[in-house]
Amino acid sequence: MRRQGRWDGRMFRTICLTVRFIVELVIFFAFAYWGFNLDYGLIINILAGIGLPLAGTRIWGRYISPKAPVKLPGPITE
């Protein structure tokens, strides 16, 4: 039987991955907010509000995601 109050590696990893996922979502929403609030007119705001998060997800998928085809050095990847 497992003792209560004791942390194991799986629980810590799950918490870290959950926090990482939430932070990534917040970043993409921030890109959308930024794009929709530019001072360049309605059409540019709509294009930027949709385009900036798409560009961010493309960069994330290419370089930062766990299954990225291009691995970056350092603490970003596992």
Give a summary of the structure in a few sentences.
The protein is mainly alpha-helical and 78 residues long. The chain has 2 helices and no strands. The protein has a domain of 52 residues.
Explain what the structure shows.
The model has no long low-confidence stretch (mean pLDDT 86). The protein has a domain at 27-78. The protein has helices at residues 9-36, 42-64. With 78 residues, the protein is an all-alpha fold. The protein is elongated and about 55 Å long. It starts with 8 loop residues before the first helix and ends in a 14-residue tail after the last helix. The longest helix has 28 residues, at 9-36. It has two helices and no strands. Helix 1 (9-36) runs antiparallel to helix 2 (42-64).
Give the key terms.
mainly alpha; 78 residues; elongated
Estimate the strand proportion: under 5%
Give the end-to-end Cα distance, rounded to a whole number of Å: 31 Å
How helical, in percent, are the residues? 55-70%
Low-pLDDT stretches: none
Q: How many β-strand runs?
A: 0
Work out the helix count.
Answer: 2
How would you describe the shape? elongated
Structural class designation: mainly alpha
Oligomer: single chain
Radius of gyration: 18 Å
Run of helices and strands: HH
Q: What's the pLDDT, averaged over the residues?
A: 86
Sheet with most strands: none
